[in-house]
Design brief:
13% of the residues lie in helices and 35% in strands. With 182 residues, it is mainly beta. It has two domains: 109 residues, Immunoglobulins (Immunoglobulin-like), CATH 2.60.40; 59 residues, no CATH class. It has two helices and twelve strands; from the N terminus they run E-E-E-E-E-E-E-E-E-E-E-H-H-E.
Length: 182
């Protein structure tokens, strides 16, 4: 297993020597706090086994220990900058109605801080994080889009080309030194 941590995203890549009988992967995230272990949560996905949940409500989420991730990579878009997490990944065997967790592998990662006081780097999470965005801003997406479009219009009038800092962000990566431009 491999993990790559950004600021708000942790990408996980899994592998199996013999995937026979594997229904997918269950992923548990535990935040490590300065005073010890924090909250543990099963990451959630949107795919279900039709034999267990035939008609899931649109946009519903299911814990991966019950409806495992049916792929070899996963992005956790709920990470917070500057935090340390342990991801426990287990292949899931058994049947869709009675899943069983196999041997668990763990990886510890620390997400990057957005601005260390000298340099700041931001990346738009783009399409891959659109479901997380939709859940976070449910009911307010039109307002966020309006603000973004206003910022974008103002940016075109600014000769320095400053970039929008609203929730939608800018699709281009940005690197700047503290105190130099916007």
């Amino acid at each position: 297993m491999r993990a790559i941590a950004g600021t708000h995203t942790v990408l996980l890549a899994m592998d199996l020597r013999d995937p026979t009988g594997c229904l997918g992967f269950a992923i548990k995230r535990t935040e490590i706090l300065p005073q010890g272990q924090g909250e543990s949560v099963w990451l959630k996905g949107m795919k279900t086994f039709s034999s267990v949940e035939n008609t899931p409500p649109p946009g519903s989420q299911w814990p991966t220990n019950a409806h495992p991730i049916q792929g070899f990579q996963w992005g956790d878009y709920g990470a917070v900058p500057g935090r340390t997490y342990v991801y426990a990944v287990s292949p899931v065997t058994g049947t869709p109605a009675a899943p069983t967790l196999a041997t668990t592998v763990e990886v510890k990662v620390t997400t990057e801080v957005e601005d260390d006081g000298v340099h700041g780097v931001w990346f738009n999470r783009g399409v891959a994080g659109s479901q997380a965005f939709a859940r976070r801003f449910a009911g307010s997406a039109r307002g966020v889009l309006r603000v973004h479009l206003e910022h974008r219009a103002a940016r075109t009038e600014n000769r320095r080309g400053s970039r929008c800092r609203c929730a939608l962000g800018d699709p281009r990566p940005r690197l700047r030194r503290r105190g130099q431009g916007q």
